[in-house]
Specification:
single chain; 156 residues; 2 domains; globular
Length: 156
């Protein structure tokens, strides 16, 4: 599926069919486009770092990069979506809302560590600490409600 044109049909592996389906210009122009390209580049860099550091998530940053690039530079969004190493988790999320188990566990550990830092490392009020805890609980509830692998389709 191409992020630059909803009419583009994906190839069997889910990658964009052709560059011909891209629009002539990105969705955003001017300073917004520059900010989105910068955000996409930063997110992509953090996602790449997350591939080699086990304590840093990569998929969320790659999703943010894909979102930024889809609005500012559709060709980069298509490249990222079709990439052999970076594309599969993006396609799994978009097509099936799949969050791998290791990503769920990493997110839970990082959120708990962050909550502990807020609780013990700051002099924040109980309202701030409670708010952070509630937000983390909602996010973790959502993450753990997502499937952890693609559904298996029976072919008849």
């Amino acid at each position: 599926m191409s992020f630059s044109s909803p009419e583009t049909s994906p190839s069997p592996d889910g990658t964009p069919d052709s560059a011909a389906a891209r629009p002539a210009s990105p969705k955003c122009k001017g300073p917004v486009r520059v900010l989105l390209m910068f955000g996409g580049g930063l997110s992509l860099a953090l996602g790449l770092i997350g591939l080699v550091l086990p304590v840093m998530p990569s998929t969320i940053f790659l999703l943010m990069a894909l979102w930024c690039f889809s609005r500012s530079h559709p060709q980069l969004a298509d490249w990222l979506y079709a990439h052999p190493r970076l594309g599969p988790p993006l396609r799994d999320w978009q097509q099936h809302r799949v969050v791998p188990v290791h990503a769920k566990v990493c997110a839970a550990v990082m959120m708990l560590a962050s909550l502990a830092i807020v609780w013990f490392g700051t002099s924040g009020s109980i309202y701030v600490i409670s708010s952070v805890g509630v937000i983390f609980a909602i996010v973790l509830g959502f993450l753990f409600s997502c499937p952890h692998k693609r559904p298996i389709h029976d072919s008849y």
